[in-house]
Write a structure and sequence with these properties.
Strand order of the largest sheet: 3-2-1-4-5
Structural class: alpha/beta
Number of strands: 5
Radius of gyration: 14 Å
Oligomer: single chain
């Protein structure tokens, strides 16, 4: 399975793994699954760091490498996928992650209940 980790899932996997559901933990730890971290999550983390809303002792690169995940860069095609999404959730970072997951046929691992309303494959974190 190919999994796209929502930003908070990336953070929880390192700082608070007990917050993850058993299903999410099993999926993340399964060596047969491919893990992806979006450049969108990097942007979200760095914006929150700059605003003082997030303290992080490691870089996004370190967090990603420790999980054995791969980077997923945002493409114009992903961004254009936003047009087809219903406006069920206002968070632009989440909407971009959903668009990426749909375009790349990835399962989005998320604890955000608003994301679950979209027609995207998910694992509840």
């Amino acid at each position: 399975m190919k999994l796209l980790l929502d930003t908070h899932v990336l953070l929880w996997a390192h700082a608070a793994p007990e917050r993850l559901s058993a299903e999410a933990t099993d999926a993340i730890e399964d060596p047969y699954n491919d893990l992806y971290v979006s450049s969108i999550s990097v942007a979200e983390i760095e914006i929150k760091r700059k605003l003082g809303k997030l303290r992080l002792s490691h870089s996004c690169h370190t967090l990603t490498v420790r999980l054995g995940a791969q980077w997923l860069d945002l493409t114009a095609g992903h961004a254009m996928g936003l047009r087809a999404l219903p406006r069920l959730h206002a968070d632009p970072f989440d909407r971009l992650l959903i668009a990426q997951a749909l375009a790349e046929d990835l399962t989005l691992v998320t604890g955000d209940r608003k994301v679950l309303a979209y027609p995207v494959s998910t694992i509840v974190a």
